[in-house]
């Protein structure tokens, strides 16, 4: 896998700087139902674009947020989560993050801490939520309170990709928060600073050849 | 004519999927052996399962047998061709809630996912269901809130 940010040739991440483009990422362990949630939300629109070289799946969606039409790219891991860590380009320019765990498997809840830590290393400010999936398996879990999200001040959703409970609500609210985040000018400078920081870090790690690739990646979009 | 699938299983030689079904007209339970052709240890079990489900000779009988179950039976056949025991195959499907699935390889993970899919399909509301609602909202917030044991024995953040 190439070492630097934005170096996915099929994907020009510069487009996410434009007002009408939003990038929302999904995080969480294997088999918590991330793709199933996407599928339930998008229904007929569900046409994943596999970038298997990067263990990445993209879903494109057009939404109306407020009175604005926004193109939303949802980024989903395609097995990359098995490395317990995502490539920096996954976080790059993301405007919101959906963190998912499986209410039937405690380990997926415990692992949220690791995912959240990594997210905040790259994107300290973006809106994020915690999603408890598969509540259809046992509705009793909804009587319990899961403190992880609360402690971090994150919205929490009980959802089921199978019967659809709260799936659409969660996605709509996250799209709205992603757009709000983008429009908030005080945060914008943070974002720029953060990008610069990331870029410096990458430079230190990569060789000069890799840096050239990063520049090339800003060329016209192929997606 | 309508058939109700009762149970299914495999037969190793020749490799076949076996189905016990009830003929709804006669009320008789019958056994149907469906040979799995052109299937080797290198074959894609998911495609093979789909092929069988759509086979014009078998599809009426297999209508209410979930794809995931047919996939599982094909995996068992394939494992056998590779010399793996039935116990091994069955263990590979078993879900252990404490197992870290991030550590499995593609094939092992697919087996667990197949297992999870059974519950998913069972609880699934489909778009063509008469009572389908796209935006289902339920508020769980206020009611109870018993403390979750998963938050105990805590490290930071929980």
Which structural traits does this protein have?
heterodimer; A: 223 residues; alpha/beta; Rossmann fold; 36% helix; B: 158 residues; alpha+beta; 3-stranded antiparallel β-sheet; 5 helices
Descriptive account of the structure:
- The complex is a heterodimer of chains A (223) and B (158).
- By secondary structure, chain A is an alpha/beta fold.
- Chain A has one domain (19-183): P-loop containing nucleotide triphosphate hydrolases (Rossmann fold).
- Chain A contains eight helices and eight strands; from the N terminus they run βαβββαβααββαβααα.
- Chain A is globular and about 45 Å long.
- The model of chain A is unreliable at 206-223 (pLDDT under 50).
- Chain B is α+β, with helices and mostly antiparallel strands and 158 residues long.
- In chain B, 35% of the residues lie in helices and 16% in strands.
- Chain B has helices spanning 45-54, 59-62, 67-81, 86-93, 106-123; strands at 3-11, 16-23, 29-35, 146-147.
- In chain B, a hairpin with a 5-residue loop joins strand 2 and strand 3 (29-35).
- Classes of the chains: A alpha/beta (223), B alpha+beta (158).
- The A-B interface holds A 29-31, 33, 36, 43-44, 79, 81-82, 84, 104-107, 109-113, 116, 136-137, 142-148, 151-152, 158, 160-169 and B 97-104, 106, 109, 112-113, 116, 119-121, 123-125, 127, 133-138, 140, 143-148, 150-151, 155-158.
Please describe the topology of this protein.
The complex is a heterodimer of chains A (223) and B (158).
Chain A: E1 21-27, H1 34-42, E2 49-51, E3 56-65, E4 68-77, H2 88-91, E5 96-102, H3 106-110, H4 112-122, E6 128-133, E7 144-145, H5 147-151, E8 156-158, H6 167-183, H7 185-205, H8 208-216
Parallel strand pairs in A: 1-4, 1-5, 5-6, 6-8
Antiparallel strand pairs in A: 2-3, 3-4
Chain B: E1 3-11, E2 16-23, E3 29-35, H1 45-54, H2 59-62, H3 67-81, H4 86-93, H5 106-123, E4 146-147
Antiparallel strand pairs in B: 1-2, 2-3
Family (chain A): Belongs to the small GTPase superfamily. Rab family.
GO molecular function, one term (chain A): GTPase activity
Protein name (chain A): Rab-like protein 2A
